[in-house]
């Protein structure tokens, strides 16, 4: 909350309450004198170092999320309005629209419908490169490590060709 407090003060946010906590970010609901009901999303760390993210800067992920919201803003995919990128002492944060829960149960069909909308939405910027998108190579590396516990298997030409080595 210490880092979040800096953003809360700098943006004159009031009525601040915890809206959620994930592995990567703390999320607060608040009232902004400029935007009304908002969400303040603050990463827990400046740089993520874990099995999934090798030295991924939190500011890159926050900026990417805001960019994706802007790309999708006028399309059929429901996303909050991104208001402002914030940074204090190297910590990033994002201020965006608060979207209240309408109480509707989210069904698998609805999730599938939204996923289909995401996948059918053309990118207006085809050069867009995602941050922390090395999941395929990461999965390949993990499989290789697990398979290669038996070193003789790793030396086979069949395995090498499969892994493109």
Structural class: alpha+beta
Kindly identify the CATH topology of the largest domain: Phosphorylase Kinase, domain 1
Overall shape: it is globular
Q: What would you say the CATH architecture of the largest domain is? A: 2-Layer Sandwich
CATH superfamily of the largest domain: Phosphorylase Kinase, domain 1
How many domains? The number is 2
Domain Aminoglycoside phosphotransferase: 17-123
Protein name: Aminoglycoside phosphotransferase domain-containing protein
InterPro entries: Aminoglycoside_PTrfase, Kinase-like_dom_sf
Pfam family, one: APH
Provide an overview of this structure.
This is Aminoglycoside phosphotransferase domain-containing protein. InterPro entries: Aminoglycoside_PTrfase, Kinase-like_dom_sf. The protein has 165 residues and is an alpha+beta fold. It has two domains: 119 residues, Phosphorylase Kinase, domain 1, CATH 3.30.200; 32 residues, no CATH class. The model has no long low-confidence stretch (mean pLDDT 83). It is globular, with a radius of gyration of 20 Å. A five-stranded antiparallel β-sheet has the order 1-2-3-7-6, sandwiched between helices. It has a two-stranded antiparallel ribbon with strand order 4-5.
């Amino acid at each position: 909350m210490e880092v979040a407090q800096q953003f809360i003060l700098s943006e004159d946010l009031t009525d601040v309450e915890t809206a959620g906590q994930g592995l990567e970010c703390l999320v607060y609901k608040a009232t902004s004198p400029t935007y009304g009901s908002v969400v303040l999303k603050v990463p827990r760390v400046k740089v993520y170092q874990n099995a999934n993210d090798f030295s991924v800067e939190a500011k890159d992920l926050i900026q990417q999320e805001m960019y994706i919201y802007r790309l999708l803003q006028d399309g059929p995919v429901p996303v909050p309005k991104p208001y402002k990128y914030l940074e204090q002492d190297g910590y990033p944060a994002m201020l965006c629209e608060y979207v209240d829960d309408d109480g509707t149960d989210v069904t698998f069909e609805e999730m599938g419908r939204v996923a289909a909308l995401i996948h059918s939405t053309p990118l207006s910027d085809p050069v867009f490169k995602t941050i922390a998108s090395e999941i395929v190579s990461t999965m390949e590396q993990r499989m290789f490590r697990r398979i290669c516990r038996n070193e003789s298997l790793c030396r086979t030409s069949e395995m090498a060709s499969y892994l493109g080595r």
